[in-house]
Amino acid sequence: APAPGETAGADATTIDEVSAFYDAQFDEQFGGLRGTQKFPSGMSLRLLLRQHRRTGDARALDMATQTLERMAAGGMYDQVGGGIHRYATDARWLVPHFEKMLYDNALLVTAYLEAYQVTQRDEFAAIARDILRYLERDMSAAEGGFYAATDADSLGSGGEREEGQYFTWTPDELAAVLDGPTLALVTLYYGVTTEGNFDGRTILHQTRPLADVAAELDIEAGEARRLLDAARDTLYRARADRPAPLRDDKILTSWNALAISAFAQASLALGDAGYAERATHAADFVLSRLKDGDRLFRSYAGGEARVPGYLEDYAFLIAALLDLYEATSEPRWMEEALALDGVLAARFEDPAGGFFRTSDEHQSILTREKPGYDAAQPSGNSVQLLNLVRLHEFTTDDTYRQRTERALRAFDVGLSQAPVAMAEMLLAVDFRLDTPKEIIIITPDSRATAEPFLAELRATFLPNRILSVVGEADRFDAHAALVPLVEGKFARDGVATAYVCENRLCELPTTDPAVFAQQIR
C-alpha cells in the first residue's frame, strides 16, 4: 500500500495538468473558460484554490478569483434577490438562462467561502451570505428541507409566459419605487437603460466598481453601499408583486445535502451559529422524512418519500453530516455519517474499487454504472472519495485508507486520460498528497469558549484537515469513541486547549490562539 501522503494512480502531476488546461482555455477578459455559454461548474474553482495553496501558483488563484468576481458581477447573478442562475448564454456572464437550481447555489457558497479564506476579501464572504439568504428566503420549505429549483419563465404583461420577465427592469419600473440619489445610483451601477439589454428590458449587472459610480455621483462610498443595500430590499419587495416563476417543490436528498454542507461550512467559516441551526433543521428533515431504517430515499413531495437513494444521495449526505459535526460538536452527526457509509460499503461498493451509482437492491440492469465524471454536480465517487479520506483522519481506521486507494486505482485510467472531466475527484487526491491537520479543541464547558481558536481557523485556508471541538463535560466519551484522537486530551488549567496533530502525533497543546495559528499554518 502507498505510504502516507502518496496516492494510487493520480498524483500532483495530474492536478498540474488540469490547472494547465484551465490556463490554456481561460477567458482573460471575463473569467471562466472561453466559450459562448458559461456554466458555474465549468472550472473546478476549489481545485484551483488548492493548487495555489500547494504550489504557490498565483495564476491558479487569479483564475479562480477572477471567475468568481465576474460571475457575481454579471446578470448570471440575481443582483436583487441573490443566488445564481443556471448558466450564461454569453461569454460575459450577462444573459442567463434564468432557471435557478439548488445545487448550483449550494456549491457556489462553498467556492466563495473558500475564496474568502484564501484572500480574506470581504466581498467573497458577502456573496456567500447573499446566496444563503436567497436559499433561506426563497427556497426553504416550512418542514425544514430546501426546494429543488425555480423556472426561467414567468407571466408577462400580456399574459404569456416569458423568460426573464420576473428578473428584468425598465427605467420606469425603477422610478416607481426609487427616487433621488438612490435611483441615480441604482440606474448607473446596474446599467439600466431605455433600450435595455434583453428584449427591451435590462438584466441588472454591475457595470463597474461601486466606489467609481459613487464618485461620479458625488456620494460617499459608505453611503453608496447603504443606499444600494436598502434599494435591493426595496426592489426585492416590488418584484415579489410580479407573477413569480414556477417552483419545483420537490425536496431531493442529494441537493439538500449540498445545501446542508453550505450552511454548515458557512457557520464555521463566518462564525455564525445561525447557519448551523438552519443546516441542522434541514438535516433533521432529511433523516426523518427521507430515510427508512438505514436506507435513504431520493425525493420527497406531497408528504411522501419516493425512489430508493442513489450513490450521490448517500455520498453527499455523508459529506454534509461530517461538515455539520465540525460546525456543531454534535456526535450524532458523525454517528449518522458512519452508518450511511456502512450502507455504501455493503450495498454500493465494488470490491475492485469505487462505488456503483445504484445499490445491489435496485432494479436489476445489465450493467451498473460507476460514475466518475463530473457534470453540473461532482460525481458521487468524487465526493465519497473525499469522505473516505476524511473518515480515515477522524477514526484512524485504516480500512478507510485502503478503500480510498482501491477507488483511486479503479479510476486511474480516467484520471490519466481525462483528468479535467474528473477534476472534483482530485480534491481527494490533494487531501492525500497533503499531511492533513488533525485539530482537537477541548473546552471546559461550551463550544463558545473555543471561539478564539476558531477565529484563527476561519482566517486560514486549511481544506485538508479535520476538526473536533469537545467539551469536557459534554458527551466527552461519545466523541472519543468516534474520534480516538480526543481520548486523553483535556482543557489545561480550566481553559480551552487546542491540540494540532499530524499522523496522530500532536504538537504541544496550547491555550494561546496565536500559537495555535502558527501550528495550523
Characterise the protein shown here.
It is built from 20 helices and 17 strands. 49% of the residues lie in helices and 11% in strands. It is an alpha+beta fold and 521 residues long. A hairpin with a 2-residue loop joins β12 (295-301) and β13 (304-308). The longest helix has 19 residues, at 221-239.
Summarize the structure.
49% of the residues lie in helices and 11% in strands.
Uncertain regions spanning at least 5 consecutive residues? 1-7
Tell me the Rg in angstroms. 23 Å
Let me know the number of strands: 17
Q: Which structural class fits the helix and strand makeup? A: alpha+beta
Q: Could you state the oligomeric state of the chains shown? A: single chain
Strand content: 5-15%
Distance between the termini: 29 Å
User: Average pLDDT, to the nearest integer?
Assistant: 95
List the total number of helices.
20
Largest sheet: 4 strands, antiparallel
The helix content is 40-55%
List the helices and strands and how they pair.
Elements: H1 12-25, H2 45-55, H3 58-73, E1 87-88, E2 96-97, E3 100-101, H4 102-119, H5 122-138, E4 149-150, E5 153-155, E6 161-163, E7 168-169, H6 171-175, H7 180-189, E8 202-203, H8 210-216, H9 221-239, E9 247-248, E10 251-252, H10 253-270, H11 273-289, E11 291-292, E12 295-301, E13 304-308, H12 311-328, H13 331-347, H14 380-395, H15 398-410, H16 412-417, H17 426-433, E14 437-443, H18 451-458, E15 465-471, H19 476-482, E16 497-502, E17 505-506, H20 513-520
Parallel strand pairs: 14-15
Antiparallel strand pairs: 1-2, 3-4, 4-9, 5-6, 7-8, 10-12, 11-12, 12-13, 14-16, 16-17
Helix pairs in contact: 2-3, 2-4, 4-5, 4-10, 5-10, 7-9, 10-11, 10-12, 11-12, 12-13, 12-14, 14-15, 14-17, 18-20
